[in-house]
Amino acid sequence: TDEWRLSCINKEFSVCPSYPPVVIVPKSIDDEALRKVAMFRHGSRFPVLSYYHKKNGMVMMRSSQPLTGTNGRRCKEDEKLINATLRPGKRGYIIDTRSLNVAQQARAKGGGFEQEVHYPQWRRIHKCIERFNILQESLIKLVEACNDQSHNMDRWLSKLEASNWLTHIKEILTAACLAAQEGASVLVHGTEGTDSTLQVTSLAQIILDPRCRTLRGFESLVVREWLQAGHPFQQRCAQSAYSNSKQKWEAPVFLLFLDCVWQILRQFPCSFEFNEQFLIMLFEHAYASQFGTFLGNNENERSKLKLPQKTMSLWSWVNRSEELSKFQNPLYEANSLVIWPSVAPQSLQLWEGIFLRWNRPSKFLDEAHEEMINIIRYNKELQAKVNALRRQLAEMETDDRMQENL
Amino acid sequence: LCHFFVQVENVRLLDRLSSRKSALGTLYLTATHVIFVENGSETRKETWVLHSQISSIEKQATTATGCPLLIRCKNFQVIQLVIPQERDCHDIYISLIRLARPVKYEELYCFSFNPKLDKEEREQGWKLVDLNEEYNRMGIPNNYWQISDVNRDYGVCDSYPTEVYVPKSATAHIIVGSSKFRSRRRFPALSYYCKDNNASICRSSQPLSGFSARCLEDEQMLQAIRKANPGSDFIYVVDTRPKLNAMANRAAGKGYENEDNYSNIKFQFIGIENIHVMRNSLQKMLEVCELKSPSMSDFLWGLENSGWLKHIKAIMDAGIFIAKAVAEEGVSVLVHCSDGWDRTAQVCSVASLLLDPYYRTMKGFMVLIEKDWVSFGHKFNHRYGNLDGDPKEISPVIDQFIECVWQLMEQFPCAFEFNERFLIHIQHHIYSCQFGNFLCNSQKERRELKIQERTYSFWAHLWKNRADYLNPLYRSDHSQTQGTLHPEMAPCNFLYKFWSGMYNRFEKGLHPRQSVTDYLMAVKEETQQLEEELEVLKERLANLQKSQLYDNKTEQRDRGKQLGTSTSNNSLANTPQEYSNDLKSFPSRSPSQGDEEDSALILTQDNLKSSDPDLSANSDQESGVEDLSCRSPSCLPSEDSGKDSDEAVFLAV
């Protein structure tokens, strides 16, 4: 577009090791300025374009925290870059995925947040999305509760509550809905910009962009917003819930994202081209896979490991039609609208397909799913037959008429 | 709108979830309804509430904007009004208190409700569900069971029906003797009989055993039940109360069967709490549902604290136990609680539902409610507060049964012919008093009131609209529709879920925005039309081929005309594209109206509305439509609306 350009500034991963070689940045900012901005951002993750909403030109950017520190350091280029993304007279929102408290504490370690005086067109909003070990503990508690066969009804609900898993789901979805507010540009970041930031930006795209709700679209969303954006899969998805050793970097960030997608899918069962199985498959491959797709922590590592040369891509396997058909949602009808999920507790449910997979009898549910497929398949078959007959009839009639005219 | 005695203008109807949304309009009070008509809006949205649905009215402290009035309904609708003048508010409050608590049956809506059916249709309606036919279906009378006329003038038990089925060997003497030894003289009578193995479910009230009393006839009665099932040498006696409660009853000369006195019984307690515990539990759960913007913890903690799902599970477990005894062990079961009209009804009907696929059909379900609830004297009037009465008698007994059915539907999606909407409408009309079926406390009272001559039957009404209540996944030849259902027992507590479709029924924003049921029903309907068209096309093709053989010009011209007309007719009705236009309620099938920023894929309420016109007249089906987004952030981002206030809501969350 006229406002955005591709920049190869990160060609050799020289500016930001966790970014891909090519990123999208405002046209008015040159690479020299970008380098300066990178110095001002945690892990050099300078603001880049995450999503451009065609309908109204609203943009979503993501980055890491600015390194303001305790003495309120500034960076003119950073301010210029962020302001350059706003059309004249418009205001934007900076969504900090940490609570104000946490963000303030980050200053002591050299991090921080944007001071509104320096970014006058932007309003900062703090949303509290938990990180690392809190999420990991939550997952461990939840899985423990799901596997506990002994408790009665009461203990089940209190254990579900105590795990806080659904609380995290609610927080993430709420932040994503906020980021997706149409008509306002947003910049999303937490600390590193590799975890909660990506949850928010990718979910917002699912809400806004119908393409992200297709199979291919979702795959490319995962590639863009998770793999290329440098979510450290290797660190986060090493052990999952059954590990006793407390891995410092372990956290079910990607699983929470998939769970949130499932929650939206449950509320809009006809708006997604893929089904629950597709999400479960991605969860499995993120943790253990015969494919190289989710190995490493970022593009840089993957290219150093020569994964593209040495391993198969998950996508090439999944996209074969016989695999793809397993993941297709029979109810799918393209829906061009924005889909706003409800984040009320009554609307959010435990993702049984993942967490109760081995404990719940699924036979009857599977049968129901099959029945659904049959109903729709039969309908399509009939449609095809009717259309074929119609065509045949029409041809015969025109033949007839031609003969008549002769 | 006619004969309203009160009319107040400039009343504000608040949205419970979002303080920024409210509607200004006029409030009317009629003899039967509270009606709120919104000002200005083109559709003139109306909210109708039947007086008999009103559960409580609360007048809150007057504020600068007016006097708030909170109306809670038995179908879980909550209406918040702000009335400008304190005096008007008081008048309405006083009138509603009177109107919501009629003292005579004649004041109830069913006596004035007139669906414009002629006499014959009304009579036919009452004949739709016939219990004699039902016992015949079970295979009764037979060698072991017979109909008894001992209660023909309600002489033995005034809360039982005139026709009861008892073991053949139980003489009138035994029955009367046994009835004297049972609370409210509710002697053991047949509820369900399993043809395949002769095992049966009987029901009664508690015995008046105290600490040591015995009754020969009662012991003979239980013997007779055992003998009616020659394949088994004992029967289970299931007391659905917690053991403590049953023991406490002994002090009052009541109690439970002593295994030593009755030969060949196995006695079993299954602890379901009493109506008072259940009433409080529902109250607590509804408080959770009413929280303004609860956190996940508030909600889950509140839900657990209410104990509601624990009670649902207890009822289910009792039903599962009995169904197992009958189907797998082939043992007959006698079920009772205290009076044998609440927990006993719940448990017998859950067990029957698990055992017999017939009860999982639409017609069968009506029969089941008629059999285990209506005919056996479940006290509808007392439990659901139709007439002004003792508030301690009120309890959501049948609501719990209906929820059990829903929980089963969630676990067995293909097993039921009907859908969730069916259950919700039944719950609604149990409280609405729009039809006579659920009036009074017993068959005797209903006959005295001549209900069948003066009111209409709800079953006929449901049956007429049955297309709206179909479960698209149901197939009568599917494996889930055969034989007994075996739900998981003990450890799978997570199988029991909060039913937001019922308890947050009027907060549409909380529900899935697209309904799989409605989608599949639309597909099936289209399939049916395609099938028909296919036949027509095949026929035409055959004709055409035939006629091409005779190549006769005049004939062709004639036929050409015919074809011309029929083509256009068919294509009008049947091409898939045009068909999809007929699916008004399914915007996702014609997603081209991209202008709407809000993804208003509001399927359920559209359908609810069309499916039951009288329902939508009574209760406002539409009120939730615009407010859909309520708790979800979807209400936030309309481009023109003030962004700052939008944001404020978010920050507050």
TrEMBL record, chain A:
GO terms for cellular component: cytoplasm. InterPro entries: Myotubularin (IPR030564), Myotubularin-like_Pase_dom (IPR010569), Prot-tyrosine_phosphatase-like (IPR029021). Residues 1-355 form the Myotubularin phosphatase domain. GO terms for molecular function: protein phosphatase binding. Coiled coil: none annotated. It comes from the Eukaryota. Pfam families: Myotub-related. CDD domains: PTP-MTMR9. One of its GO terms (biological process) is negative regulation of autophagy. PANTHER family: MYOTUBULARIN-RELATED, MYOTUBULARIN-RELATED PROTEIN 9. Belongs to the protein-tyrosine phosphatase family. Non-receptor class myotubularin subfamily. This is MTMR9 protein.
TrEMBL record, chain B:
Transmembrane segments: none annotated. Residues 552-561 have a biased composition (Basic and acidic residues). It is a peripheral membrane protein. The active site is at 337 (phosphocysteine intermediate). The keyword Glycosyltransferase does not apply. Substrate binds at residues 274-275, 337-343. It is found in: Cytoplasm; Endomembrane system. Residues 563-593 have a biased composition (Polar residues). It holds the Pfam family PH-GRAM_MTMR6-like. Residues 520-547 form a coiled coil. Belongs to the protein-tyrosine phosphatase family. Non-receptor class myotubularin subfamily. This is MTMR7 protein. It comes from Geococcyx californianus (Greater roadrunner). The lineage of its organism: Eukaryota, Metazoa, Chordata, Craniata, Vertebrata.
